[in-house]
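Feature request disguised as a bug report, sorry. It would help if multi-protein outputs had a clear separator. Right now it looks like this:
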Amino acid sequence: MLRKKLFIVMSLFLFGGMSVATFAEEGRADTKNYSVQKVDSGGAVAKENTGYFDLLMKPGEKRTIVAEIKNSSENQIVVDNQIHTAFTNSNGEIAYNTKSESYDESLKIKMSDIAKVNESDIKAEVEKKGTRKVRVEIEVPENAQKGVILGSWFFDKEGQTSENDKQKGVAIQMKYTYTLGIKITIDSEIATPHIDLTKVTVGNLDYRKAFFAHIQNDQPAIMGELLYEGEITEKGKYDVLYKGKLEKRALAPNSTYAFPIFLGKEQFEAGDYTFRVKVTSSDPKWKTQTWEFSKNFTILADEAVKHNKEALNDGVPEKKEPIGLYVIIGGLVFLVLVIFIVIFIKRKGREKQSVKEYAEEKIALLEREKRHKERKIKRQREEREE
């Protein structure tokens, strides 16, 4: 019998005092059988009684933070743990439980550069029914500026890929990971946030065609409660071709989000366009602010063809009426009609001219005949008089 595997990863993310379970296709575990919790923040904190590390530190300060791994199984386990730097993902949300392929150019200090898991704890062995404390050493650079450095402490138990729970040819595989958020506030939050539109690109997101406005948060601050509103027009025009809206989004410190406007079944067409976007922040740390941007961009013909072919999740393009062809045909019909009218008028004119000439010839002939008769009568009269 053909056996199927269902891979599920459950990431227990502890931040803001909340435990959030998320699912994706990956990994497996027999049962959870282990857990992780914050133990010691090692010094001053920005906020008490949180499920994550909310640290208040100064430039040059060193600190050790502690977490505890609990093994509730009957076997020894090994838990890998590492530090991640937070970034803004393609959904416009802050990502903590993975590494980014690249980071924003404005990010000068990464969490993964200043926070290191103790070498002996990177692969933490925990005895059956036991617990183990693991530590991270943090050293803030002397040149660190006021604001927030954001990241996480990520835990992943080894051996979560063996097959189990087989039923009717289906192997259910579940993987549990834990993420403890780490927020370091250097001195205090910044006074005023700032964002910018750095560029506009076109491409595909999850195999769906989209225009992208790259919105950069170039400050060391978490920006929440963001509303994005955008529209695409032809360059120099204001008739909206496409529009999009996203709300309740966030930006990690010193990160960029590519805000998408999707085309749906429409196709990219070469030409010059304008992306207008408005971003509103209702983050309670500051007063409500709105930024408005506009940037022109060009889609090349080969670029349009490439991205149209790559889009697999937009459905079949809607058949467009051949408006251009109709315009050409209509123009030709109009031209033929004009030519016909001109020929008709000219022909009528010639016919009228012919009638006029015929009448004039008749009148001239009658006048000649009249004069001829008059001369004849005159000669006859003269002959009788002689």
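(second protein starts here, but nothing in the output says so)
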Amino acid sequence: MNSQSANTRHVLTPSVSSLSSPSSSWQAFSSLSSTSTPASPTTPPSGTIFAVRTPSEEILWAQLGYIANGPSSGMSALISTHGARETWDRLIHLSQQESEQDSCEHLASLVISALHKSVSEDTSRPSSASRPSTVSRSSAQLRANVVATAHTWYRRLLELLSFPADVLAMRLSANKRLHILYPAHPCWPAEKLERLLLPSCSSVMPICLWIEGDASLLIEPHISGIVGSRQMSDYGKRCTQEVTRACYNAGSVVITGGAFGVDAQANATALSMNQPSIAMMAGGLANPTPSANKPLFSEIVSTGGALVSEVPPYSVPFSSRFLERNRIIAALSDVLIVAQARYRSGALNTARWAEEMYRPVLAIPGNIDEPSNAGCNQLLRSQKATIVTDISDLSDFLSPTLSLNLSEPNPDAPTSEHAASRTDKHAPEPLSLEEEILHLTARQGKTVDELVSKLQPRYPAREVSQSMGLLEAQGHLIRLPTGKFVHAQHP
């Protein structure tokens, strides 16, 4: 996992710095074919514009994803406000203005209007995909950032329009190697990705996803994230192998970040069990990195697994993309296991995302004299994770069901003085935290804050939120569009 800025969660705002340079992107994109090659590799081509006004759904979303080139609150707001196809039509129309500056000024106004509209609506809805913090800055600063991004979008749009439809489709799918997932696709993991829109998280959903391999793995009933440091000790290797085996023995599929160390070991262990796994990449899938792991990536795909990315096929995985990638690993994971991590490991960034999405976070402790264990020990010391001291500790988080005593109160139960004076050995067992949560949500929905308020000080907020995440993952709790949670048997 990437270690840069591990202790600060990456902020996703409409800034030109979050996009790759047009020239480097263009060189990679145009190198796929000898046809339609620009005279200069550093500028978009001039001449014929193939304005594809009615692309297929798959190509439509891939084009919008290519223009945004990663997580984008601005593009998400446009799609939320106007829909994907109208957004594309508006971009085509704006590209035909008299000058680039005019086009970008108009586009910036359109984006800012959409951002304000999406924030004014109910942010818990799946369509409201922009960050509230995006529009809280000064109007001048916001407009300057959006105009800069609009210029990048404009140039990337011209790149797309310079290709005939059939050539463009080949390039957006890396010569048909990749599937392109979008919100209406049957393998789009909508319920899990909507965790990114929780008020506690306030992130953005990916515009689309590029997949090599079995896309249906993303909608598996239970996915376990296994993350950790690139520098892995023998102890970390053994722990990673054991937790990976436990996940598959419980029927869960493993997702990692595809990096060296813990990530690669988890994927390799899945291969040794002849099981499919998922690797979520920070860069494009045409040239997955790290390059030394390419044999591993090929095996993952050939044995029924999947490589996933939210950026176009030839995008470069610069540093911020590793942190952006982490949020999707956390969203897709029903439980996140930190097998071994240094103090500044990128795995801790993934754990923070998981915590904000109310996903259970587990960590394996280690020798305090070994720097490779400092991250996990810190998570446990700060009560940000549940300790794993034995593989059996994973069972509750990997099991599809919980054995809970959730019977309704018996109206015929004795209420006399004799009943009140029963001895302790006949008294009912006190409810567990999970049982209390389900009883509290049996009649009407409750928000996380409401449940925390009712259950404190007996249970800390972290424990309540993690138990809620576990119950939701196992199907006992349902999150309503209002953001409230309700017992699945009493929706």
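Even a blank line would do. Unrelated, but nice: Residues 139-161 form the longest helix (23 residues).
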